[in-house]
Amino acid sequence: MTKFSDLNLNPKVLKAVEEAGYETPTPIQAGAIPPALIGRDVLGIAQTGTGKTASFTLPMITLLARGRARARMPRSLVLCPTRELAAQVAENFDTYAKHVKLTKALLIGGVSFKEQDLLIDKGVDVLIATPGRLLDHFERGKLILNDVKVMVVDEADRMLDMGFIPDIERIFGLTPFTRQTLFFSATMAPEIERITNTFLSNPERIEVARQATTSENITQAVVKFKASRKDREGSEKRKLLRTLIDAEGEKLTNGIIFCNRKMDVDIVAKSLKKYGYDAAPIHGDLDQSQRTRTLDGFREGALKILVASDVAARGLDVPSVSHVFNYDVPSHAEDYVHRIGRTGRAGRDGTAIMICVPRDEKNLEDVERLVQNEIPRMDNPLSKGKPQDEAKAESAPSEAAETEKPKRSRSRSRRSDDKPKEAVQSTEETAAQPVQEQAAPKPKAESKPKRDEKPRESRGHDNSQKGRNDKRGRGRNDHRGGNQVVGLGDHTPEFIGLSFDDRRNAT
Which stretches make up the Helicase C-terminal domain (predicted)? Predict the structure, then answer.
């Protein structure tokens, strides 16, 4: 069996590794460290939790042990997708380089530029940064990348998901083409493969596991959930989450709840705290000091439940996470592998439970297609305590609606003979009222000139259209008190046919 002592590492680095309690390298470490030490480019593909960070930190410290950095010109560069992962890489350098005199700087957002500028001005051997903040320093003229000898891209597939690929390509162009490149990713999307073909020179490819596989010591389950009403989905889903947490009992020592949206992270965390759970949120919109404080509390055991967006899904090393809850089915199937990879680390057993609403069915199919396995279904615990009829009504409201329709149709088609006498009498009375009301204005209508004295054919109009016009006219004029005579109609008074002289003689 290969040991760290067999990998030609610097003796001071080996001493730090032994003090950290490690003797045997993981497969990705055993495969990546030897070619990295001889200066070859490395392309490492391994699922999360396999020790990729040590795969590049240990050979980098050995290679940089000799030499000295100049002001504003770092000797090595490590790019990470998130602030938390960059901070974790910096901690690994502190652990493994404590017997070697190397300087480092951490360039991440949420921290003052002034403090970072002071470190860069002194000269650093290792520069650990997120792409955005690194380019900010470069554009301000505070950083020169012409002396970079080793460049590392960590979690490259996450870089792709977060839209950092254009920044990565630009940074590659700012560094010398003679650099050594160590490229690590959990999956190999076509875009990632294009970059490796462009910027890596004859790399040593190390693939220690099938892409996008889940650990065998993680117990997985998915709960199908459908709300009783659309406007109650959020509250009922949070109630289901609390029930799932309670059902785990003492087995849940700590856990991470993943949500797709930052807004849901805050809502779920606030709801859990309201019901007495020890929970706190972490996502990209929070202040960096608050994110660091929350993550440190979770690692130290002071915080039991961490509600997170995918900012915490990649690369965070918290070995003792017992449970992962997917409040939402991830939009990208690869994120499911990284989320549940937070539990079951270092050979421990873990549990991953996911809630799936009807609109997430397609995402669930994508996840199962990626992992090439069906995730076991779990009964909804909220349905167990309800009466059978109520649970059936919630699960199939359309069936309940259909059973009610015949009752209403039978009530409409009931014969008048079956009605009670009081109902028949009241119906006859209401039917007689409009007849009496219509009979009253008849004399008034007869006193006016009749419009229908001549045959309808002589008017030159369509009879059916005339009938419709009459009905519309009556409908419009009902509130004016009867039919109105508009114009002369078919009746012409005799005086209109007289001449002017005849009218004067008549007077």
Answer: 244-386
Instruction: Please give the Cα distance from 157 to 110 (Å, whole number).
Output: 24
Round to whole Å and give the CA distance between 215 and 343.
Answer: 9
User: H-helix or E-strand containing 37?
Assistant: helix 27-37
What is d(CA 384, CA 387) in angstroms, rounded to the nearest whole number? 8
Q: What angle do CA 375, 344, 46 make, to 5 degrees?
A: 85
Fold of 4-207: Rossmann fold (3.40.50)
φ and ψ of 309, to 5 deg:
-90, -175
- What integer pLDDT is reported at residue 271 of this predicted model? 96
State pLDDT tens for residues 176-199.
Answer: 999 999 999 877 888 889 999 999
Q: Rounded to whole angstroms, what are the CA distances from 428 to 42, 47, 63, 419, 462?
A: 95, 82, 104, 12, 38
173-194: b or e for each residue (b if 16 or more CB lie within 10 Å)? eebeeebbbbbbbbbbbeebee
Assign 204 to helix, strand or coil. Answer: strand
Chain segment 35-82, per-residue pLDDT in tens: 999 999 999 988 766 788 999 999 999 999 888 888 889 999 999 998
As beta bridge partners, residue 41 has none
- Burial grade of 209 (CB within 10 A; 0-12, 13-18, 19 or more): middle
Task: Give CA–CA dist 10/61, Å, rounded.
Answer: 8
Q: Which residue has the tokens 């660091």?
A: 292
Measured CA to CA, the distance from residue 65 to residue 62 in angstroms comes to 5
**Region label for 276, one of left (φ > 0), alpha (ψ between -120 and 50) or beta (otherwise):** left
Q: What are the tens digits of pLDDT across the range 261-277? A: 989 999 999 999 999 99
Q: Cα–Cα distance between 151 and 75 in angstroms, integer?
A: 9
**Which residue in the block uniquely carries the two structure tokens 């003797």?**
23
- Residue whose token pair is 């995730």: 375
CATH topology of domain 218-396: Rossmann fold (3.40.50)
Q: In what order do the strands lie in the sheet with 150-153?
A: 104-107, 126-129, 76-79, 150-153, 180-185, 42-45, 204-207
CA trace torsion 53, 56, 57, 59 (10° rounding): 150
**Does residue 333 surpass a pLDDT of 50?**
yes
pLDDT > 80? residue 450: no
Distance, CA of 337 to chain centre: 15
Over 90: is that where the pLDDT of 130 sits? yes
The full length of the chain comes to 507
Query: Residues of CATH 3.40.50.300 domain(s) within the chain?
Result: 4-207, 218-396
The pLDDT of residue 1 is: 62
